[in-house]
Design brief:
The chain has eight helices and six strands. By secondary structure, it is of the alpha+beta class. The chain has a four-stranded antiparallel β-sheet with strand order 1-2-3-4, with no helix packed on it. A hairpin with a 5-residue loop joins strand 3 and strand 4. Helix 1 packs parallel to helix 6 and helix 7 packs across helix 8. The longest helix is centred in the N-terminal third of the chain and has 47 residues.
């Protein structure tokens, strides 16, 4: 039975083995170079606390190869569609299972060998790819410091998705008994589950922590800094609120120029107080542009930081 299953599965195994060999050679050839560039560019600048230019250069150098991480998002779906769904559905659709069941092999052994061989191969393929890509991407992951964005592309997570996709494909084949229909259903259901887990399940597995940070006005100028969370924190949502707890700004965001967690477009006044331009009297106001000859209040920020044409929003 094992020999028969292997004969049915050997074409897929040969193709996947060739792909794995090519990926192994590619990553083995570029991995040491990536580690060397990290050691000579990122490690020295870490002591100075400014690695933005070095990090951008490192990421751009291997931009195309970083796309291999998305392969681990697609591979489980491919396994479920092309390995799991036809495994039993083709036997039921063509009627070859009747011949197998009339031999000396019991039905449970027939099913166990087919599921065991193909299932273990599915998990092994996802595991080898994940192992290689996790090792190769480790310098870039340390630079990005955002483990949650690549959570489903590293470690043992791809193994779980591969096993789920394979089991989903086999179940669809058993229920529908048609190969093409089982493949289509497997693809749709797997994609839906992936989206649901990523957007709605995983963010709610643990109760999130809430960070409330005051806007810290500087001694002079028109920029106020926001205390950012830690780089490796997973930010589920962020809003700007006033002292009464009401959300202000357009969709809760009033930051300009400095990017996320960067700077707030405001102006300090006498007594250390600060007014936020771009909010105005409306809780959902947003900054707008006015002509240069307008008499509307303008920013007093340093030249080149914020254009003097920005002014507060209106309801």
């Amino acid at each position: 039975m094992i020999r028969l299953t292997w004969r049915q599965f050997r074409t897929q195994a040969t193709v996947v083995s060739g792909i794995l060999a090519a990926v192994t050679v590619l990553l083995a050839a570029t991995g040491p170079q990536l580690v060397h560039l990290y050691d000579i560019s990122i490690v020295p600048c870490a002591a100075r606390g400014d690695c933005s230019d070095a990090a951008n250069a490192l990421a751009s150098r291997f931009h195309l190869l970083q796309g291999l991480g998305t392969v681990l998002v697609v591979v489980p779906a491919v396994i479920g569609v092309f390995w799991g769904a036809p495994l039993v559905a083709r036997e039921l659709e063509t009627g070859t299972y009747e011949l197998a069941w009339t031999q000396s092999v019991p039905r449970w052994r027939w099913l166990a060998v087919k599921l065991g061989l193909a299932g273990l191969a599915s998990v092994a393929v996802a595991g080898l790819l994940s192992l290689m890509l996790t090792w190769w991407s480790s310098p870039i992951d340390r630079v990005n410091a955002d483990p949650f964005s690549v959570f489903d592309q590293r470690g043992i997570v791809p193994l779980g998705y591969a096993a789920f996709a394979f089991a989903l494909g086999v179940a669809a084949g058993l229920l529908l008994r048609r190969t093409l229909a089982a493949m289509a259903v497997t693809l749709v259901v797997f994609a839906a589950v992936r989206v649901a887990v990523t957007r709605w399940v995983r963010p709610n597995l643990l109760a999130p922590l809430r960070l409330v940070s005051a806007v810290q006005p500087p001694g002079s100028g028109s920029f106020a800094s926001l205390a950012p969370p830690q780089p490796a924190d997973w930010v589920l949502s962020d809003q700007v609120i006033n002292a009464a707890g009401r959300v202000i700004g357009q969709n809760g965001a009033i930051s300009l120029g400095g990017g996320r967690y960067g700077f707030v477009f405001g102006r300090t006044v006498a007594g250390g107080r600060m007014t936020l331009q771009g909010v105005g009297p409306c809780p959902t106001g947003s900054p707008r542009w006015v002509p240069a000859d307008s008499r509307a209040p303008r920013s007093t920020g340093p030249p080149g930081s914020v254009s003097p044409g920005w002014t507060s929003g209106r309801c």
